[in-house]
Amino acid sequence: MTRGAGKTKGMSPKMVAFRASWTSIWTLIKLQFKAGVKMPRGKSKARTIVKLGLIAGIAIAAIVGFSFVYGMLADQFIKHGLSHAFLVFSFVIFHTIETCFMLPMLIRTLDINNDREMLLRWPVSPKQIFISKIIVAYLNELIFTACLLLPILIAFGTAVGMNFGYYLFVPFIIVLAPFFPFFLASLVMYPVQRVVNFLRSRQMLTTFIYFGLLIGMVIGYMQVINGTLFALLDNAGLERMLLSKQGGIRFVSQVFGVQWLFAKVFNEGIVWSIMGLIAVIGISLVFLAVGIVVAGRNYYKTYMDERTMLSALKKKAPYKRSKPLFATIRKDCLNIFRSSNYTFQFLLLVVLTPLLVYFCNRVAMVAAFQTFQQYNAKLAEDLIFGASLFVIMILMPVSSSFAASAITREGHNIYHTKLIPVSFRKQIAIKAGIVFFPVLVAVAVAIAMISLPYKPSNLSDMIMKVPVTDAIYIFGLAISLVIGYICLGMYLDIRKPLCNQIGGGELVKSTAHVNLIMGAGLGVGALLGIVSMFGGLFETMAGVMEMGGLVKFIFKIGTYDRLIYLPLSCTFALVSFLLLFLHGPKRYYRMEQ
Amino acid sequence: MAILKVQHLFKHYNGAKYISARDINFEVKEGEIFGFLGVNGAGKSTSIKCITGIIPFTSGKIEICGFDNKKDPYNAKKCFGFVPDNHAVYDKLTGSEYVNYIADLYGVEENVRKERFEMLCAKFKIGHAVNNQIMSYSHGMKQKISIIGALIHMPKLWILDEPMVGLDPQSIFEVKEYMKEYAKKGNSVFFSSHNLDTVQVMCDRAVIVHGGIVIADIDLHEYRRTGKDLEKEFMELTRQAGELQNQMRKEINDEEAELAKKVGKHRASRATVKKIDKMVHDLIEKTKDAPCVNTFAIDLAKSKGTVQVKAEYTSK
């Protein structure tokens, strides 16, 4: 008698099949979590517990610390009538980070390429795989949203003085925040995947389409945010709205796209709130059901397309001699740009950086203009400086982190790099350079954009521009940090390449080094960005503000940030560079993968 | 002249429980097809990886065309072409792009590479697919493009690790024929395989590795002349070596075995050294009549710079 057979006794065959199906789905979910989440392990059970406790402690401390700092900042802003501008910044930042992280994650999780092993090894159906993947993807997104949004919502609620009802709705906001975009993405995933398969070997076309779509989406998205802001800010009484409980919640809900639900909740009473909630869940379930049907019908076709369209690329290489250095650069570039996956990861933020800098600056300008009801050139400069620095600092580690999988991505071909008569130092320099130069161009374009005077069409007489010295400072800071991230990431990867490959030989998951560089970079970026942004701002408004304690200290640092950060970032870059180029080749030789 | 010289190769992977290569010694001469044999886990792949520079080795010396592959890796690497057993080639490139890339690395002139590429493509019958992306290739086709890549600069030493896996009979025949042709030109072929029949027919000489040491250096011309069966000898030699090594392991008491494992931390006692000496002597006595075994070496308890009991004997 098989395990669990007793539990199905007396059930109808349909129920037994249903139960078995959910058992498979549950197994697949566990499998994906096991494959995706590497639990830290110590040499003994006690050490493992200590390690886990330490990680949990750090995470909680980070969240509490973030909430505390955010709450203090929110307090200051609300006290001085800048609450709306502050909240706008908070949500723009949240959405920027969410878009940057969740979009690739969603694509990766739902990508059919990852299913090969599951499909070939186990007796599971496409529908089961789809359901399990969608649950895993949703849970991932939920965790991410909760970690980021919970501190913001709680701190904001505390600062504004929301009542118990607000906190009761916070979990709903978090659960619902990823609902619509998520299920919509899952619905269109397989049809889109078929198009992607068709385009897979048409590399240039694919890349253009990808980025065209992406830029379109970002512009559309930012326009919506911008439009919402204009609408909100133009409706007089924003201050009142923000500082009142209902208004605050409506504002929060506006930004999350489920505003109608919350509007109903607070305007129409409990019946509407329940109906609204049912409607949201119902629509999401319809999306899910349609998604499952679409997945079931398209899965094998999509899967087979993926297999049969691989041979489409044909290209005759000329018998033309190149120097080993250029040949290696060419090979590395082809390896990246002939993979839509790598191209996307590699160029995503490089393409987006100038765009996001522009849009975030616009948002900042709108908020400032509406706050002061008049144009202030110095304040505008401070805002553009702070917002640009912040966005660049946040985005650079994500772009640079591609270097942290440069060796791992070689996979089985790692032996090639050891065999060829090209020094390890040269190979390392090539890989680092390939990541560095596009990021350099992206930063340069973004900096050029904010250095040239520009008048946005619907912002009357405002000029978006920072002084040349500020632009040079941002450029120096960003580039030195980029050099540091790239060199450190590559060095870590050389020390311990993970060579984690699935199916077609492409690395589909980011490595621990990538996450480390990204996480550390985001932390440093957020700190530098916030201090620089608000430091400059408060310096301009000196005399108006009443500051004390830690806030005063932080903003005082902000006043002298250039003297502190630039030397620090240059030192970091130099140390990482020396580590990579002096110690890296020896490590490369000792690598035993 | 020796194209490849491996002396006292010792390799212990970081954190590994066992030593992979204890004392590997052999030479590959000019114009020779050299077989490299051993059971799984004998230390074959480790030795090949050390020779090609894929992994570093703990101690010993490897010379390729007279260049020390630790001190002068650049020149040593220029002297050989390597065909790995895992068909790993850059999937995103087309066959011709891959071979051109390798040719660029080794500085092969345009007209020379064109001539060689076309010749090799015709020989291995892959001309129809060379402009396709490698990801669309079968295992056999990947192996063929890997072979062409290894030969495009016509190295003095051609190293093949299980090259026949995945190849069709026609291609296996072509590879074997080309190996002979290549060696006749004065180049050397280092051929690692589990296919003993092929080794017996193809090779001039072969060594058998077992437990990280070379247990036999065999003249295959002699085998072919006398009609001896390499497979039978291989089975017998590896069985004997295995038994003896196991027996010796048992005889060394647990404490001393533990000491030997703790590389570089403890010294073995005089009694253990004497025990090992006696066992080596017994081993030689037992195997001294083994036919065509030129060298017999055993080093049981060697560990990084501490216990070094080693004996090399030449049979009659």
Written account of the structure:
The complex is a heterodimer of chains A (593) and B (316). With 593 residues, chain A is mainly alpha-helical. In chain A, 78% of the residues lie in helices and 0% in strands. With 316 residues, chain B is an alpha/beta fold. Chain B contains 11 helices and 12 strands. In chain B, the strands form 3 sheets. Chain B has a 6-stranded mixed sheet with strand order 6-7-8-3-9-10, with helices on both faces. A 4-stranded antiparallel sheet of chain B has the order 2-1-4-5. Residues 262-266 and 287-316 of chain B have low confidence and may be disordered. Chain A binds chain B through residues 201, 310-311, 313-324, 326-328, 330-331, 334-335, 338-339, 411-413, 415-416, 418-423, 504-505, 589-592, and chain B through 13-14, 49, 52-56, 74-75, 77-78, 82, 84, 86, 88-94, 96-97, 100-111, 113-114, 117, 131-133, 135-136.
Provide keyphrases for this structure:
heterodimer; A: 593 residues; mainly alpha; 21 helices; B: 316 residues; 4-stranded antiparallel beta sheet; 11 helices; 42% helix; globular
Can you write the helix and strand succession of chain A as a string?
HHHHHHHHHHHHHHHHHHHHH
| Average of per-residue pLDDT values of chain B | 79
Q: Give the low-confidence spans of chain B.
A: 262-266, 287-316
Radius of gyration of chain A: 26 Å
> Mean pLDDT of chain A, as a whole number?
71
Instruction: Give me the count of strands of chain A.
Output: 0
What is the radius of gyration of chain B?
21 Å
Number of strands of chain B: 12
Secondary-structure-based class of chain B equals alpha/beta
Strand order of the largest sheet of chain B: 6-7-8-3-9-10
Low-confidence stretches of chain A: 1-5, 232-245, 252-266, 500-505
Shape field of chain B: globular
Q: Helical proportion of chain A?
A: over 70%
Summed up, the helix count of chain A is 21
Most residues in contact, chain pair and counts:
A-B, 41 and 44 residues
Roughly what fraction of the amino acids of chain A lie in strands? under 5%
